[in-house]
Amino acid sequence: SGSRSSKTFKPKKNIPEGSHQYELLKHAEATLGSGNLRQAVMLPEGEDLNEWIAVNTVDFFNQINMLYGTITEFCTESSCPVMSAGPRYEYHWADGTNIKKPIKCSAPKYIDYLMTWVQDQLDDETLFPSKIGVPFPKNFMSVAKTILKRLFRVYAHIYHQHFDSVIRLQEEAHLNTSFKHFIFFVQEFNLIDRRELAPLQELIEKLGSKDR
């Protein structure tokens, strides 16, 4: 399974140093360090919303990539023959281009499709421009929403199917902080439909109530 886990573990998407997006990422990291996640997700004064969402989307992709990378040996064709988040939620894969009709596949296959698809979006300069002054496309917000909606499913799968492994690896604090940051971010800018968040609704309410 060594080769498979490294295959699913996508290369980290780097934001070029010295760029404005790099400065924004540094700002995000600094405010995160303060421990106030509600404040950390807010759009910094005078910044472009698309750019802020782009920087954070890349960051969440890297975080989820890393978190999933730690449990790939437990997420196999036999342990997870379907991509699910508990018994009531099952996900089928379609990307609209290569796979138009949703297909049923194992969780590792689904997550591999998903992460490869996200990586392709992030690497597309017409969607995620890294150069200063290059405008974001008109459909940027809908692209970002689809990416975040799909990344949420990886968190949902980890929590429902692999949380015992996460605890054994002593990574629950890391997973919880990452997920809480993700949820506060998508809530702040209304990026994921409530229906989509249903598989982790109780956890989301619990994380939120601690911060009121």
UniProtKB/TrEMBL annotation:
Coiled coil: none annotated. Zn(2+) binds at C75, C80, H157, H162. Keywords: Kinase, Metal-binding, Transferase, Zinc. SMART domains: Mob1_phocein. Gene3D superfamilies: MOB kinase activator. Pfam families: Mob1_phocein. GO terms for molecular function: kinase activity. InterPro entries: MOB_kinase_act_fam (IPR005301), MOB_kinase_act_sf (IPR036703). The keyword Zinc applies. This is MOB1A kinase.
